[in-house]
Every structure is written in C-alpha cells, then in structure tokens.
Amino acid sequence: MSSFRVFTPLTQVLELVLPYRNMGSKALKGIKKINFNTKHLKKGDPLPPFNGKLRVYNMRYCPYAQRTILALNAKQLDYEVVNIDLKNKPEWLTAKSYFAKVPSLEIAENVCIYESLVTVEYLDEVYPRRPLLPKDPLKKAFDKIIIEAIGPVHTLFYKLIMNPESLTEDHMTAFHKALTFVEEQLKSRGTKFLDGAEPGYADYMIWPWFERLLAFKEKDDRATIDGQKYKLLTKYINDMLEDPAVSQYLVPNNILFQVMEGYQPGKTPNYDLLLESE
Questions:
Q1: How far is Cα 206 from Cα 228, in angstroms, rounded to an integer?
Q2: Which of 4, 17, 84, 274 has the fewest CB atoms within 10 Å, i.e. the most exposed one?
Q3: Per-residue pLDDT band at 130 (split at 50, 70, 90)
Q4: Which residues are catalytic?
C-alpha cells in the first residue's frame, strides 16, 4: 500500500501537498517539548489518529530515522513522534511507509514521504528557515559525497553489534580512510562544522554513526577515534555533542548497549527501555 493512492487525480494531490510548502511559520508557532520516548507500537496496536501536525514514524535507536529527527530539531519545527517496534511491526505501517521502514514523515493525513535523506531534503525545501543544505552546488555535492564516504563507519557499527569477530583488516582500513576523508574536509573548509558556524546537512546526516562510535568504544577499542591522528574530527565530535538538536536526542550509553545487545542471535531488543527508565 502506497503513502497515497497512485491513481489519485493530480489536482487532489496538489491540493494536499502545495499548502504544506507554506507551513514554515505555522509549524514554528507554539512549539512544545517533543516526546521522543513514546511506546513503540507493534502488531495489533491501533494507528494513532492524525492530529494535523508533522509526524515522524520512528524507532528511537535507529540512526537513519535520527537524521530526520535532527533536521526537525535544528529547524525547531513542531512535530510528533510515533515510535515503531521494527521487530513486530504494526499492520498499518505499510500505509505510512511503502517498504515498512523508518523514518517516514507524514506531512498531511495519508501523505507520507520516506527514506531519511529524502525527508531531510524535503524539510529543507519546505521550511527554508535555518537552511541545512548548502546553496553552492559544489559544496552541496561534496556534502553528499561525505555522506556516502562514511559507509565503512556504518559497516563497523553494525558488525560490532551483530558479529564483532567478522571485522577484518580491510574493514578497519576502510573505516580509517573514511575518518581521514572527514578530517580532510574539516581542514579544507576551515569551519567549526562541515557546513559552517553551525551544523548543516552533512553534519546531521553523518552524526548518528559517530554518536554510536562514542558509546561502543567502551565495549570495543576498534570503535575508538584516535584524538592525535584525527584532531579536527575529535574536536568536531565534541562540538556536535553540544549542539541543541543533537543533545536533546542523545541516548545514555547503558541504554543503547542494552538495546543493541537485543540484536544478537536468539535475543529481542527492548525498544521501550528509555520509557521504562523515566
């Protein structure tokens, strides 16, 4: 089931979508504290009624969904979170995300877009306040190259969770090459963050994996980023931790470890640990 009916007449689609191109000021009014730690809905749980504000179908510990959350936080948009149990998905999820994945961003009732980079680029176009994507085409291109270049960081993280014994020298070489690329980009740009004096598109799109490396270095020193070799990257990570969009969504290391351990063979992650600890 698609996010909206394929055969909906174009005029009806435009009526739904076009008003949301001018929602920036409206979405910024009356912002309340976002509840990130809602119960993760599972099979059999009802779909919450749509209340008219932006909604993110999310999983609290998903680095891809975190990209969308960070963009929303940076732009100080008013939105709500509907967390999903990805190991026991509710039946209605495919109506909100065709591939039954998160994130999915519901911009009007039954009008959803999904895939993390797509949702962030959409938000940046519709809500121009606090722009994230560079205007310069070359810089924008290199921002996207950086996002692709940290693929080995993703690989390291998932192998540390699922099968740390499978990490090879080739994996570690690729990992350090990716770190060097980011270090060199920070040096050539000469700015506090990749996108300037405050974080932007590249910063928020790569951050979730660096946040997880900070946690997992306590479990496995292969996740450690050498502060002497990567001086700019180390300072950059510390600066990112202080950014309000990032800091309000951080997960304590002990909770992250417990959830990630649930992905090991024979186990099931408890997505509601943060909710239970409140």
A1: 21
A2: 17
A3: very high
A4: 62
